[in-house]
Write a structure and sequence with these properties.
Strand order of the largest sheet: 1-3-4-11-6-9-12-13
Largest sheet: 8 strands, antiparallel
Shape: globular
Structural class: alpha+beta
Oligomer: single chain
Helix content: 40-55%
Distance between the termini: 11 Å
Number of strands: 13
Number of helices: 11
């Protein structure tokens, strides 16, 4: 059981360390967020809130993850798709987490071991189930079934957080089983059976190739002409693919990622004699006044403040929660 207020997006990375994921703040300003995690007898749940736009990428090799789309998260891009309230994301271990929120987003999720999901589905389907989901899909369950699942998820989460002692007992088990039953009912009775259309394969591959180029050049500036020449793609195609995936053009995305690398390095250098200027230059920022202003717009504090903060405790003292 965990409930934390966060003042940096990197706090999510500590809690979800098992994903080996990335949590990048894409919008500008001081970060404020929170995370609640419940570890039940058969399932896990989390609720995450953030006041900034966050890009999340990572892999969870153990759990199937189910995320209801609500008005509080509908504007999020899920693997490049915009979904609608009432949809249900079903993500299995072989698929990557790849979503970008807008500011002021709240996400609830139910995580179920695949073997548990298969066992419960087989029982509730009368001994067998031919339901096979792709590694990532967005379903449109029958509205009443979806409403029942959302209520069950909310009840399990809020009851467990309010009364942690029930989690390991009979009442907690009963709530978990009922939430699972409602989930499977929603999965087995979709009103739309086709998964939401993913972005076109050629654009997905173009973004991946561009990210590889960016990764190799994180410590130096990169122009649009250089990127297009490296990829053999038009500027218009590249911009469209990145805006579809991240809501930002490729150079704006690249700059945000480089600023995050600076932030990580500044935190790692606390207590040393290294200066902000040295670290900025290390990552290819040579106009220090412009860099400091941009860093403050992105993170709500000057880089010197990030470097000088001492003794801020780790969110979870080095242990992965999810």
């Amino acid at each position: 059981m965990l409930s934390r207020q966060l003042d940096d997006a990197s706090g999510f990375a500590e809690i979800f360390a098992r994903w080996n994921g990335q949590f990048h703040q894409m919008s500008r300003g001081k970060f404020e967020g929170s995370i609640d995690v419940v570890t039940g007898q058969r399932v896990r749940l989390f609720q995450a809130k953030t006041n900034q736009a966050i890009l999340t990428r990572g892999m969870d090799s153990q759990f199937a993850t189910f995320i209801p789309i609500t008005p509080r998260n509908a504007a999020t891009r899920w693997s490049g798709c915009n979904l609608n309230p009432g949809d249900l994301i079903a993500k299995f271990p072989e698929a990557e987490y790849n979503n970008q929120t807008i500011p002021d987003t709240s996400i609830r999720a139910l995580l179920v071991p695949v073997c548990t999901l298969q066992e419960m589905t087989c029982i509730l389907a009368g001994g067998s189930s031919e339901t096979n989901f792709p590694s990532w899909s967005a379903l449109r369950p029958e509205p009443k079934a979806m409403e029942r699942f959302e209520r069950g998820l909310a009840e399990l989460l809020t009851t467990s957080l309010r009364s942690p002692k029930i989690v390991g007992g009979a009442e907690g088990k009963s709530l978990e089983m009922e939430c699972l039953r409602r989930l499977i009912d929603a999965l087995l009775h979709p009103s739309v059976t086709e998964p939401a259309r993913m972005r076109e394969k050629n654009r997905r591959l173009l973004v991946r190739r561009a990210l590889d180029v960016m990764h190799d050049r994180l410590n130096e500036p990169l122009t649009a002409i250089e990127l297009c020449a490296e990829l053999g793609a038009s500027d218009r195609s590249l911009r469209r693919a990145f805006r579809e995936a991240f809501g930002l053009g490729p150079l704006a995305y690249f700059r945000v990622i480089r600023l995050h690398q600076v932030r990580v390095t500044l935190k790692g250098a606390r207590g040393s004699d290294v200066s902000v200027a040295e670290i900025a230059r290390r990552w290819g920022f040579h106009r220090l006044g412009s860099f400091s202003n941009e860093y403050r717009r992105q993170f709500g504090e000057l880089p010197s403040r990030t470097l000088k903060v001492r003794g801020r405790p780790s969110v979870n003292q080095g242990a992965s929660v999810l």
